[in-house]
Amino acid sequence: MGAVPTAVPNRLARGEAADMVIIAGEAIDKLIAEGRLQKGSRTDLVFSRIGVVVKAGAPQPDLSTPEAVKRMLLAAPSVAYSDSASGVYISSRFFQGLGITEQMAGKAFKVPSTRRVAEVVAAGEAAVGFQQISEILGIPGATLVGPLPEAIQLVTSFSAGIPVSAEQPEVAKAFIAFLTAPAAWPTIRSMGLDPAGEPKR
Predict the structure, then answer these.
(1) What are the tens digits of pLDDT across the range 105-145?
(2) Dihedral sign, CA of 101, 76, 80, 93?
(3) Separation between Cα atoms, residue 159 and residue 175, nearest integer Å
(4) Is residue 23 helix, strand or coil?
(5) CB 3.0-4.6 Å disulfide test: which of 31, 68, 71, 162 passes with 41?
(6) Buried b (16+ CB within 10 A) or exposed e, 146-162
């Protein structure tokens, strides 16, 4: 997502060939409405939560309550967020919901999708970062503190869709079936995601 040339919607708009796309569910719905993806082809694959990241070795802030998160943000000298689904929420609703939009205006900034937020934090360019947990895990020099509290969390579905121009739609459907099968759930969970088809525990 985002405005960069490599964002999936922009690639489809340029006429790049694809048999399947995976992107945030709301973006799949938009691409279906625009006629770029087949009607009825949306399949939710995973649910993704927003995590908080700090530089490795830095003190880990308290995330136990919305008020604790608010205190962390007011104390942080700089805050980074992505230009994807989580970043849209952070910039347009999250700060506003905590009542700190004005305080964050001078120190919160968006990271283009050519980089991960955790990379920016690991490089010391921001003290705190927000991005999907799956995008934070595995980045050297960065530490996942944990997810946002459920009261202020945004759970994003990442979904598959099949382009109207797909040359091998049946292969795409088979791959989607593989990704949603119970055998895939342990791997999905290991990446910081929740399988969409898994019964709630």
Answers:
(1) 989 999 988 899 999 999 999 999 999 999 999 999 999 99
(2) negative
(3) 13
(4) strand
(5) 162
(6) bbbeeebebebbbbbbb
- Per DSSP bridges, beta strands 79-82 and 108-111 are parallel
> Other C-beta atoms within 10 Å of 10: how many?
14
pTM greater than 0.85 (yes/no) = no
Alpha-carbon distance of 19 to 74, in angstroms, equals: 45
Question: Would you state the torsion angle of the CA atoms of residues 74, 79, 83, 89, taken in this order, to the nearest 10 degrees?
Answer: -20
Residue 55's SS3 state is strand
152 DSSP assignment: G
User: How far apart are alpha carbons 160 and 106 in whole angstroms?
Assistant: 37
**Which amino acid, residue 77?**
P
